[in-house]
Amino acid sequence: MGVKTTNNSSKRIKQILKNCSDFKKPLKIIARNMKNETLRNFDNETSYLGAKWKKSARAKKDGGKTLQDTGRLYNSFTRYSDNNVARVGTNVIYARALNHGLKKGENGTVNAIVKTHYRKVRYKKKNGEYAKNKKRVKVRAHVRTIKVPWGDIPGYKFLGISPKMRMKYKNILLQHILKRR
């Protein structure tokens, strides 16, 4: 048993197979789009799924945007693509913690060396009232164990692919495979 094809369909199948062997152009387009979507998440202060970010204390105080104080993280995103992969990433070390979030002490503990220093302390007088002046007290050098991070860090989810983006990228690849030339 076999299948007979016409000359045109045979050419078409060969063209489709040829298109399947080279994905550089569509993956370059996808990588560029992924980077733009990530930057759009920062601009709109939303996760890749569309959820609004909780406003940071600094952004509330200064009237700025969450995660955009210095612009270091925002400007660090790079894209990469070749024949097999489209990727967006950053070399900023704290990006993973901000994207996924961390609970207090999740990264363990560190020992911090505190140098000798002076501290001003309020003290009570004999009648029980606090004195207006503060007493200067010397604090000896010591080692303190600190949880890392010292507070909860919410996950902002700025990196990721939404179902809508996934469909868009599938269509880009499908159009590349089925294109005629």
Largest sheet: 2 strands, antiparallel
Principal-axis shape: elongated
What is the share of helical residues? 25-40%
Helix and strand element order: HHHEEHEEEEH
What is the mean predicted local confidence, pLDDT?
89
- What count of helical segments does DSSP give? 5
How would you write the strand order of the largest sheet? Answer: 1-2
Q: Structural class from helices and strands? A: alpha+beta
List the uncertain runs. Answer: none
Number of DSSP strand runs = 6
Termini distance? 32 Å
Give structural notes:
The chain is elongated. The longest helix has 21 residues, at 24-44. The model has no long low-confidence stretch (mean pLDDT 89). It is built from 5 helices and 6 strands. The chain is 35% helix and 21% strand. Helix 2 (24-44) packs antiparallel against helix 5. With 181 residues, it is an alpha+beta fold.
